[in-house]
Request: fold
Amino acid sequence: MEPRIGFSRAVRVGAHVAVAGTAPIGDDGSTVGPGDVHAQTVRCFDIAERALAEAGASLADVTRTRMMLTDITRWEEAARAHGERFADVRPACTFVEVSRFIDPEWLVEVEVEAVVAGGVGGVGGGEPD
Reply:
């Protein structure tokens, strides 16, 4: 999806890493966990974690997460997946309801921001410096 739209999954500028809105897309391009907010959130964080690693960061470096849901009443399902990943990190976290995503099967997307301790680096589309 990234090359077609013209964006990077993650960009690192100095010590800061921003991971773009990440949807629950499987390796085969299909939606992971249709109807299951928890499973979709887990998949989103799997993708985001991989993008962080490619940018030289880890979940321990995460300072902020945003979770966008099509039904805010299901926030606890997403929160459970968030807690499974970030119980020891405890980044700032925001839940937002949106009307819909590109694919109607997507119930959640996540964004992640990180600051790499002692990180210098330059600008890059997910490439560590």
Notes: The beta strands are 10-13, 16-22, 62-69, 92-97, 108-115, 123-124. The domain at 2-117 is CATH 3.30.1330.40 (60s Ribosomal Protein L30; Chain: A;). The chain has one domain: 2-117.
